[in-house]
Amino acid sequence: MNKPEYIKTQIFLDSGDPAETKILFEKLGFLDGQTTNPSLVAKNPEIQKLKNDGVLTNESIWVEYNKVANDIKNIIPSGSISVEVYSDDATSFETMCEQGRILSKWFSGIYVKLPITHTGISVAKVLVSEGINVNMTLCFSQDQAAAVHSATKGAKKGQVYVSPFVGRLDDIGIYGLDLIGNILKMYKEWGSHVSVLGASIRSIDHVNYCLKNEAEIITAPLALWIKWEEEGRLLKLPSDLIISVTDKKQIDYLELEQKNWEEYNIKHDLTDKGLEKFATDWKSLFSK
Fold first, then answer.
1. Does residue 288 lie within any of the structural domains?
2. Has 113 been annotated as catalytic?
3. Do the beta carbons of residue 27 and residue 55 sit within 8 Å?
4. For residues 137 and 37, is the Cβ–Cβ distance under 8 A?
5. Which pLDDT score is estimated for 235?
6. Largest Cα–Cα distance of the chain, in whole Å?
7. Is 1 within the bounds of a domain?
8. Does the residue 105 lie in any domain?
9. What are the mean pLDDT values of the chain's consecutive 10-residue runs (288 residues total)?
10. Domain that holds residue 111
């Protein structure tokens, strides 16, 4: 079937495996895009085989990542595909900029994923000014989302995504969906050019909330989208969707002022932990 007109939110797959892209595209009859990251690519069966054969190097893994991204693009030619730079505490501004430029040339319409760190936002500001699309990832606070808006002013609508990670906040007893709602509210008040991409989506409740509150994009793993489709939720109007009552700690909305991006508090422990995990998973592919 074609995507129902009443679903305004874009549906993305969160995966580093083109085989899963094909499965979901055939299951739904449409797919608006896909997000990848170092951890997801490391799980790709073909990449794992190369790892087990001991043939991957720090250079060759990027060739394989390119192949993965292009295979995904061939399945959903008009889809938005996000690919992530490698970054850790030691990655310099210059290195991350160069990586971003290289990734942006893999194919037309690609989105370069950057972490919401001081370096990552500094790089985003430069890349956006060069016409490159960016997806600012590992977002865990309203301040971080405000900084992304401020740093990328002048970008076209749709050129910049911010990815709040819902599930990882839930893991520590905080109601992650509040973060999505708060960012959507703030961006609406500001007339922001930044699109909100609900990430770390782990439940039907998470999907329902994003659809009901008209987040621009949702990305979720294959198993969750299959469950969502098989339960017939694709055929329901967003206004009819039900969201469970939460027992998690809720996040208050902050009345933030628009100011220079460096004036916001963008530091967050979960961003640091997420970055460390991505780096570890990436290095594991070619480390002995």
1. no
2. yes
3. no
4. yes
5. 87
6. 53
7. no
8. yes
9. 91 98 97 96 94 92 96 97 94 97 96 98 98 98 98 96 98 98 98 98 96 97 96 90 95 98 98 95 84
10. 10-283
Q: What is the CATH number of the domain that holds 159?
A: 3.20.20.70
Quick one: which of 46, 130, 42 has its CA closest to 86? 42
Cα distances (angstroms) measured from residue 100 to each of 116, 124, 268, 272 = 14, 9, 23, 20
Region of 29 please: left (phi>0), alpha (psi -120 to 50) or beta. left
Q: How many CB atoms lie within 10 A of CB 62?
A: 16
- Cα(83)–Cα(76) distance, integer angstroms: 15
What's 145-174 look like in SS3? HHHHHHHCCCCCCCCEEEEEEHHHHHCCCE
Q: Which two tokens stand for residue 34?
A: 């896909």
Residue type, 251: I
Q: Which two tokens stand for residue 250?
A: 């809720």
Size (the chain), residues: 288
Q: What's the CA gap between 148 and 139, in Å, rounded?
A: 10
Do 10 and 32 contact (CB within 8 A), yes or no? yes
Contact, 168 vs 130, CB < 8 A?
Answer: no
β-strand pairing of 33-35 with 111-115:
unpaired
51, 73, 113, 125: the active-site residue: 113
Q: Are strands 80-84 and 33-35 parallel, antiparallel or unpaired?
A: parallel
pLDDT tens for each residue of 44-66: 999 999 999 999 998 999 999 99
pLDDT at 288: 60
In a domain, 5, yes or no: no
Per-residue pLDDT of 128-162, as tens digits, reads: 999 999 999 999 999 999 999 999 999 999 999 99
Instruction: Give the residue among 223, 219, 15 at the shortest CA–CA distance from 135.
Output: 219
Total count of domains within the chain: 1
